[in-house]
Design goal:
Distance between the termini: 19 Å
Number of strands: 7
CATH architecture: 3-Layer(aba) Sandwich
Helix content: 40-55%
Shape: globular
Strand content: 15-25%
CATH superfamily: Uracil-DNA glycosylase-like domain
Strand order of the largest sheet: 5-6-4-2-3-1-7
Number of helices: 10
CATH topology: Uracil-DNA Glycosylase, subunit E
Order of helices and strands: HEEHHEHEHHEEHHHHE
Length: about 210
């Protein structure tokens, strides 16, 4: 039986060969995702920036440093989550992804969710939030807990501001405290049990695929 690690690598290879993806031509590298492939927490951002485009990894620039701090403040560690985006190539000039681009990459994100089977999805920014909570404003739902059924899976979705927003307003401590409160409310100790007791934690790092 193939592991989640194997299935994600296979999906990444398929995505890497897909010439129909609308942002591929102008990008340097595919930024598929990284993290613990057995994680029950999936973080979904918007799209790669310049540093991510160069390294092929999500959230490794300044916003990534803030995401790491946010996770720590919330009682989590990066190695206990999996991180991806709604689009997996860098949009030109770091512009917002367009609806047709989100749709084109969406089939792969759907497959990532299907393989991962997360219990909790933390959306980082309004574009990933809209996939699960359409027609709402992030300012009105930030940090709240929503029970969502997606592709037949029951999920907890917690919409958060994109970490880049903290570069502008400096409220990373507030965001971390908000997320920590939500995590405690949904009994995260049970969700994180695998990460504490597993003998092997598989880490998926895009550029090191073979």
């Amino acid at each position: 039986m193939k592991t989640k690690y194997d299935l994600l690598h296979k999906l990444k290879d398929k995505m890497d060969k897909d010439e129909s993806l609308p942002l591929k031509k102008g990008a340097t590298k595919l930024v598929f995702g990284s993290g613990n492939t057995e994680a029950k927490i999936l973080c979904i951002g918007e799209g790669p920036g310049r540093t991510e485009d160069q390294m092929g990894l999500p959230f490794v620039g300044q916003a990534g440093k803030l995401l790491d701090k946010l996770l720590i403040l919330a009682g989590l560690e990066r190695k206990k989550v999996f991180i991806t985006n709604v689009v997996h190539h860098r949009p030109p000039e770091n512009r917002d992804p367009l609806p047709n681009e989100i749709e084109a990459y969406g089939k792969y994100l759907d497959e990532i969710i299907k393989i991962m089977k997360p219990k909790v999805i933390i959306t980082l920014g309004r574009f990933s939030m809209a996939k699960f909570l359409p027609n709402v404003f992030i300012s009105g739902v930030h940090g709240q807990k929503f029970d969502v059924e997606f592709q037949g899976q029951k999920l907890v979705v917690i919409p958060m501001y994109h970490p880049a927003a903290s570069l502008r307003n400096g409220d990373i401590e507030y965001n971390g405290a908000t997320l920590m409160t939500r995590m405690k409310n949904i009994r995260m100790s049970r969700i994180l049990k695998y990460s504490h007791h597993s003998r092997v934690i598989r880490i998926f790092v895009s550029p090191l695929c073979h």
